[in-house]
Automatic annotation (TrEMBL):
Residues 55-224 form the MAM domain. PANTHER family: APICAL ENDOSOMAL GLYCOPROTEIN PRECURSOR, MAM DOMAIN-CONTAINING PROTEIN. This is MAM and LDL-receptor class A domain-containing protein 1. Pfam families: MAM. It comes from Trichonephila clavata. InterPro entries: ConA-like_dom_sf, MAM_dom, MAM_domain-containing. GO terms for cellular component: membrane. The lineage of its organism: Eukaryota, Metazoa, Ecdysozoa, Arthropoda, Chelicerata. PROSITE patterns: MAM_2.
C-alpha cells in the first residue's frame, strides 16, 4: 500500500441468501480522496486450519505479520534455524520444537557500531486496556546489549515497556519474558516493537546475537495459568496446494477482475510502477469457481 491517498484493502467471502458460505473470495481495493496511491497483492496462499492470534507466532511457517522496521534497521531480524550458519552462529535449537530444524527470529549483532539497533514490528493491533505479551528469548554470547519491548500509539511515538540486559541473564539459554501492555484511547490501532540494541561497539571475532521465539499476545492480564514448560516436538499434516494459491508470475491463475466493475482493474506489473492512479472507484479481484456437473 503506497502513496498519500491510498484507501483500504478488504477481503470478503460471500454468502448466499440462505446464509451459506459460497466458495468465492474477493479482494477489494478502494482509493482514498486524493489522486495518488496504489495497492499491490502478491503470493496468495491459503492453508488449512485457523489463523494465529494477531501478534502471536511460532515462526515455523512464516513471521505472522511481524516485519523489520526500516526506520530502526541497522541490521535485519531474520527467520532461521539452528542449522543456518551463513549469517553467523546463533542458538542451536529453537524453543517451539527444541530441534535444529525449528525456526526462530534472530538479530546478529557481531561487528555492529555502538547504539546500532534492529526492530521487529508487529502488524496493527486492536486497542485494548489489557494485553499480556509473552515470548521466549535467547541472548547468544551477547555483551553490552539489550532486548527492548516497546509500543507505539498514534501521534505519541515509541514508548518503552521493558528491557532485558545481557548482563542480567545467562547466555545461550532460552528464557521466558512476559509483560503487561495497555493501549487505551489511542486511535484505531497500536503496534509493538521488539528491538535488539548493541549498547557498545561489538567485535568481529565472536558470533553474538539475540533470538526470539513463540510470541503470544492475549487480551488479558499476565499471570493467569502461565506455563513455562518446553513444548514437545509436534507433527503437522501436509496438505496439497490450494487452488486459491497464486504468485502472479505468469497470470492471474484462477482469479479474475470482477466483470461488473468497469473502472480500475487489477493488473500484473513488474517491480515498481510509476503509474499514477487518479480513480476513486473500487478495484475488485475475485475468485469465481468453475461450475461442474
Amino acid at each position: 500500500m503506497f502513496g498519500n491517498d491510498i484507501g483500504t484493502l478488504a477481503v470478503y467471502q460471500r454468502t448466499t441468501q440462505e446464509g451459506r458460505l459460497e466458495n468465492l473470495k474477493t479482494f477489494e481495493a478502494q482509493t482514498g480522496y486524493g489522486p495518488l496511491g496504489y495497492i499491490a497483492l502478491d503470493d496468495i496462499h491459503v492453508t488449512h486450519g485457523v489463523c494465529s492470534d494477531p501478534g502471536s507466532c511460532t515462526f515455523e511457517i512464516d513471521t505472522c505479520g511481524w516485519s523489520n522496521a526500516d526506520a530502526f534497521a541497522d541490521v535485519d531480524w531474520i527467520r532461521r534455524t539452528g542449522l543456518d550458519n551463513n549469517l553467523g552462529k546463533g542458538p542451536s535449537v529453537d524453543h517451539s520444537t527444541v530441534t535444529a530444524q525449528g525456526h526462530y527470529m534472530y538479530a546478529l549483532l557481531t561487528g555492529l557500531r555502538a547504539e546500532s539497533q534492529s526492530m521487529l514490528i508487529s502488524e496493527d493491533l486492536d486497542i485494548s486496556p489489557n494485553y499480556c505479551l509473552s515470548f521466549w528469548y535467547n541472548m547468544f554470547n551477547t555483551v553490552n546489549s539489550s532486548l527492548l519491548v516497546q509500543q507505539i500509539l498514534i501521534g505519541m511515538g515509541w514508548e518503552g515497556v521493558t528491557e532485558v540486559k545481557s548482563e542480567d541473564v545467562t547466555s545461550d539459554v532460552w528464557m521466558k519474558l512476559e509483560t503487561n501492555i495497555s493501549a487505551e484511547d489511542a486511535g484505531d490501532f497500536f503496534q509493538i516493537g521488539l528491538t535488539a540494541l548493541a549498547r557498545s561497539e561489538q567485535d568481529n571475532d565472536t558470533h553474538r546475537g539475540i533470538a526470539i521465539d513463540d510470541l503470544s499476545l492475549l487480551k488479558s492480564v499476565c499471570g493467569e495459568d502461565i506455563s513455562t514448560t518446553l513444548v514437545p516436538p509436534t507433527t503437522t499434516t501436509e496438505y496439497p496446494p490450494s487452488k486459491f494459491d497464486c504468485t502472479f508470475e505468469t497470470d492471474l491463475c484462477l482469479w479474475e477482475n470482477d466483470p461488473e466493475e468497469n473502472s480500475a482493474k487489477w493488473q500484473i506489473v513488474e517491480g515498481h510502477s510509476e503509474r499514477k492512479l487518479t480513480r476513486q472507484e473500487p478495484i475488485i479481484l475475485l475468485y469465481q469457481p468453475v461450475a461442474t456437473t
